[in-house]
Write a structure and sequence with these properties.
Layout lengths: L2 E12 L2 E12 L3 E5 L6 H8 L7 E6 L2 E2 L7 H5 L2 E4 L11 H11 L5 H14 L15 H13 L5 E5 L7 H16 L4 E4 L3 H7 L2 E6 L2 E6 L1 H6 L4 H11 L1
Parallel strand pairs: 3-8, 3-9, 6-7, 7-8
Antiparallel strand pairs: 1-2, 1-4, 4-5, 9-10
Helix pairs in contact: 3-4, 3-5, 5-6
Amino acid sequence: MSALLELTGIRKSFGDHEVLAGIDLDLAEHEVVALVGASGSGKSTLLRCVNLLERIDDGRIVLAGDDISDPRVVADRVRSRIGVVFQHYNLFPHLSVIDNVTLAARHVHRMSKTDAAEKGLALLERIGLGSKAKEYPDRLSGGQQQRVAIVRALVTDPELLLLDEITSALDPELVGEVLDLVRSLKEQGATILMATHEMGFAREVADRVVFLDGGAIVEQAAPDAFFDRPQQERTQRFLARLRR
C-alpha cells in the first residue's frame, strides 16, 4: 500500500507550550489509524494541522504526493479533498438534513443541486436515515446527528477522512450506531485517521494504533500487539489506568 498521507517532523506550539513535538507518521491508502492518548496529548491538534485549520511551525505534510504544508497552498482546496467530523456535529440548525449533507458538494465542489441531493439521499438511505432527509437537526437524536455529519463528510468522496473523538459528545447508548457506520466505512476501503478514546473500537477497527503522549509518538503497533504486548513503560501505564 502506498502512503496517502506523510507527516514528517511536525511541530506546533501555542505560545511557550509545545503541543506537537516532532511527529513522524505515514498513513497508507485504505488504512485506518487510531490516535490514542490522554487529553492534551496532541491528538486533536494533529488532526487540525492535517486539515490546515492550524498551521504547523515546522515539518512537512504530504497528501497524495502534494506538499500541503507549503504556505503558498490554498487551504480551501486542500480541505475540499479531506472529510472531517468533529466531536460536536456542527450541523446548521436552520437547514434540513439533506441541505446540511449537500452544502459543501454544491458550494465547494460545484455539484448540481439535483446530483448532490441524489447522492446525499442515497448515502442517508444506506445508513437508515433516508426518511429524515427533510427533517431539521433538532428533530434527530445525537447519534443520528453525528451519522448525518459523517455522511456530509462522505458526500464529496474525500481522499482522507479525519474523525476527532466523534463519540465523546454522545450518550453511551448512541455510541454503537456511530461506530457501526465507521466500521462499514473501513470495510468499504476508506482511509481514516481518527482520534478516539474508545479502546475496544480502536482494537476492533484500526489497522494500527498510535499512542501520543506529550505531543510525541511513544508507540505504534497493530491493535493486538499494542493492547496485549505494549513495549514502552509510558504505554503500559496509560493502558493500566484505563483498566482500573
